[in-house]
Amino acid sequence: MKHLRTERVRPTPKLFTYVLVGFIALLGLTCLYYGSSFAPGSRKSDEFDGSNHRVRTGIGSVRNRDGVLAVSRFEVPKSVPVRESNHLILIELARLHHCPPPERRFNCLVPPPIGYKIPLRWPVSRDEVWKANIPHTHLAQEKSDQNWMVVNGDKINFPGGGTHFHNGADKYIVSLAQMLKFPGDKLNNGGSIRNVLDVGCGVASFGAYLLSHDIIAMSLAPNDVHQNQIQFALERGIPSTLGVLGTKRLPYPSRSFELAHCSRCRIDWLQRDGILLLELDRLLRPGGYFVYSSPEAYAHDPENRKIGNAMHDLFKRMCWKVVAKRDQSVIWGKPISNSCYLKRDPGVLPPLCPSGDDPDATWNVSMKACISPYSVRMHKERWSGLVPWPRRLTAPPPRLEEIGVTPEQFREDTETWRLRVIEYWKLLKPMVQKNSIRNVMDMSSNLGGFAAALNDKDVWVMNVMPVQSSPRMKIIYDRGLIGATHDWCEAFDTYPRTFDLIHAWNTFTETQTRGCSFEDLLIEMDRILRPEGFVIIRDTTDNISYIKKYLTLLKWDKWSTETTPKGDSLSTKDDRVLIARKRLWSVPANSAS
Fold it and tell me: Can you say where in the cell this protein is located (predicted)?
């Protein structure tokens, strides 16, 4: 895998840094020793084992000295190292934050913590999780006065409170709808508000209670000073992700959200000429809202009043207006046209972005301290011309033409995935119990058809768009779904044991084409897959045959099935489907296998 593009700038006490570096160095040497047989740089070519029998091999891809991609055959290892439980957090951090060169890579399985239990099922999990699964009770102590979470025996309960809404997120959401004067005090406003970006989300209780309003939030923790907040959110079954508000754009296309929310999110919005607010401006749809809430105590603090005045001045220059204000909550509105921008005095900052800037380009693209103007088509189109939810899920969105897809092709894709998911669920039926699947990832989401076909099930889907298909991510958000652009030659920014089901359609073929490692991808999938979770892999016959050899090594051998799927407009004659289930396993304390 390649180095992650993200940047994390967070001061760490020197003593802790020295200890952490020392542990990681020791762990790296240990993993190198035990993992050498599994490291990409150490695979042997097809050869004889000294007898008359040829060594069993799998398929991989390499580049020759001229840089030409070629297929070669590698030996499948007999075992995959497992790290000791007391090294668990170091491995989680190492895989999460960077990908070292092959010779220093942590090619080993991450065991569950001691006492791990299969997560509680949704919707029970919204309000309580097993303490053993995320044994970080210090956060409950630090936030005890804000009603975030409470340790209760072998469980952790979530009363629904937050830094700015001690009395519960449900009441806070109603108050926001009242401020905006939406009918029936419903924040979804008849389906026009669907996608929300919650910045500095804590344990994501705001996003949890939005779900009953038919609103899905991308809950983002860019400054996780208390640590593990997102891990709690994911354990609860709430859509959320790690992220960095630093120098690079967030991995979402322009005009993806109707509302952005910051409740004492500890973000310095004024830094670097307001570049972070300008990133929010890029992400909000025409007429979108930014809800900014701070504790009442801040109202009497001179420094915070100064910050508030400076933000007001910046918003005015960005042509945003105050839509509503109550106590310490302010709701700003983004303009629906370019008219105000064009009326500003010459030289007013921030400037408009140059015509050559692509506001939808996100992967490894630096944030820009400029305003992304609307195109001629989007000019004066509130909510980008999208129909209300839930019709939005299946109605062809206006931006289809930007990626060269016709409405007819969009409808055909939607129907194809509806039938595919029916076929998948027939195969899964003997093993799946009610609400046993909640967190789902689609590794190559294309137009979002897989996620759309799951809409009648009580799940949420992280739609991942490979970098080579990144222009299509805008369609995911225009359908009222969520996701992120990602390079599968790298680790995904999430904690271990996140997803109950991972769907990979041609992901291995694409990985092979780009010269990246099958083994790295399999280990990364295992890291983010929950025990007793499922993988659905749809790929070529050769790739499926190779992956099957790893099922036991990865402990994906609780149950599996393989079939030749029905042909459709997206399939090839070589398509095969493999479904496998990961078993719950553990290692004794202070030992590895």
Answer: Golgi apparatus membrane; Membrane
